[in-house]
Design a protein that fits this description.
CATH class of the largest domain: Mainly Alpha
Mean pLDDT: 87
Strand content: 5-15%
Strand order of the largest sheet: 2-5-7-8
Largest sheet: 4 strands, antiparallel
CATH superfamily of the largest domain: Outer membrane efflux proteins (OEP)
Helix content: 55-70%
Shape: elongated
CATH topology of the largest domain: Outer membrane efflux proteins (OEP)
Radius of gyration: 39 Å
Distance between the termini: 61 Å
Structural class: alpha+beta
Number of helices: 9
CATH architecture of the largest domain: Up-down Bundle
Number of domains: 2
């Protein structure tokens, strides 16, 4: 009976494992982007950084809010006495030290501190910076997802072309074999076809590995397991038709770019650092309230229960330390401004270069599209001639190689168009909205 239960349990685990292994995810490009935004681990880490910055902001604000501390103590002198002699002719008076116990409650409130006020503003900017970093991480991951999606489709199309071409040549090979056996064709014709078939078979296996590697890369970006089967529901034609044409985005402002936005926030932080160093010249004022309850009172007690006070701290002289810190903060601010100006110039040049790249890719794509149509027609014509015995297998295999080369260049040109469009969308910050 126990063996039967174990057998059923094993079958159950195997069934569950098979169900997990058969997990399938069907995605269009928009779905892939959304899935990555929800499950990518790098994005999750950036989200945690945003949450941490929010807690850091509250920590900074809380430093200026009322602070309440309480403590209690108990003191026992273990029978010790205080000896007091009022006159040398009289014996000393001994007063026993009784145990004492106190409860103390202290409330403190910061009334004015320049560094605190600037620190809160700086913490708010730091939170905005972490949120902007999250946006940059999301943009980078989504851009990578788009690239991987395109790469998978290109790899799949390349694999299909190679498989179809291999099957066609294998069919020609099978039809040629009987002709060689009866002496109509020479064996060298069959050998040339065999070499081409073997080469294509190797190319198919290589394409299959590249296709699977591209899928694995997308799995990592989507945050799914290696066992998850991916099904892409869009084809290359969906993107090559809707891809933006060169010059469609004639205007560009650096403020559209997330890296420039990060530098702008860094500039604001540098300004606050200057203000913070300048505020170190200002005094600090705080108030407090102290309550003490004597639980076990000594015989002689003059301390009051309630105390209220103010404390003022005035910086007087630091031998130039504060002045040096202010100057350093100003230098950091000027450096940040220079970096912002440099980045703005670089982004404008990069935008122009990406537009040029897209235009060149589109021109190359249109040329390669014509070339592949011509090469396909030439190959099909020569194949018919070969089947009729009008040309040699060498001419056929040469035409086949030319056709495959044209297909490879056509797919490469298509990928360049898609990548150039994706690069433009990433630079201008549109990648998350498309």
């Amino acid at each position: 009976m126990r063996k039967k239960q174990i057998f059923i349990a094993v079958l159950l685990f195997m069934f569950i494992g098979a169900l997990q292994a058969q997990e399938k995810l069907s995605l269009d490009l928009a779905g892939a982007k959304q899935h990555a935004l929800e499950y990518n681990r790098t994005i999750k880490s950036s989200s945690l950084a945003v949450t941490q910055s929010q807690e850091k902001l509250w920590e900074t604000i809380a430093m200026g809010l009322p602070q309440i501390n309480a403590n209690a103590d108990y003191v026992n002198a273990l029978g010790a006495e205080i000896s007091i002699q009022f006159d040398e002719n009289m014996p000393p008076t001994k007063i026993p030290i009784k145990p004492t116990s106190n409860f103390n409650l202290q409330v403190g409130q910061l009334l004015f501190n320049g560094n605190y006020l600037v620190g809160v503003q700086t913490a708010k900017l730091a939170q905005k910076l972490s949120e902007k970093n999250l946006k940059k991480t999301e943009q980078d991951i989504v851009s990578q997802v788009v690239e991987s999606y395109y790469l998978i489709l290109i790899s799949e199309e390349s694999m299909k072309i190679l498989q179809t071409n291999t099957e066609n040549l294998q069919e020609i090979y099978r039809k040629t074999e009987p002709l060689v056996r009866v002496g109509i064709l020479e064996k060298v014709e069959l050998d040339q076809l065999s070499v081409q078939v073997n080469s294509l078979s190797n190319a198919v296996r290589s394409a299959e590995r590249q296709y699977e590697m591209a899928k694995n890369l997308l799995r990592v970006q989507l945050g799914v397991s290696a066992e998850t089967e991916l099904e892409l529901t869009q084809s290359l034609s969906d993107f090559i038709q809707t891809n933006p044409t060169a010059g469609g985005d004639a205007s560009f402002e650096p403020e559209q770019n997330v890296n420039f936005q990060l530098v702008q926030l860094q500039e604001e932080l540098s300004k606050k650092q200057v203000t913070m160093q300048q505020s170190s010249y200002l005094p600090t004022l705080s108030g407090y309230y102290n309550f003490t309850e004597k639980i076990l009172k000594p015989a002689f007690d003059m301390s009051p229960k309630h105390l209220v006070g103010l404390q003022l701290s005035i910086p007087v002289f630091s031998s130039g330390e504060r002045r040096s810190k202010v100057r350093q903060a100003r230098i950091d601010l000027e450096t940040t401004r220079n970096n912002k100006a440099l980045l703005g110039e670089q982004l404008e040049i990069q935008f122009s270069q990406l537009q040029f790249n897209l235009l060149s890719a589109l021109e190359s794509y249109n040329t390669q599209k014509e070339n592949v149509e011509v090469s396909r027609e030439v190959y099909q014509n020569l194949r018919r001639k070969f089947e009729q015995g009008l040309i040699s297998s060498l001419e056929l295999t040469t035409a086949d190689s030319n056709y495959l080369q044209a297909e490879a260049e056509y797919l490469s040109a298509m990928l360049e168009v898609l990548q150039a469009g994706n690069a433009l969308d990433t630079l201008t910050g549109k990648i998350l909205n498309n």
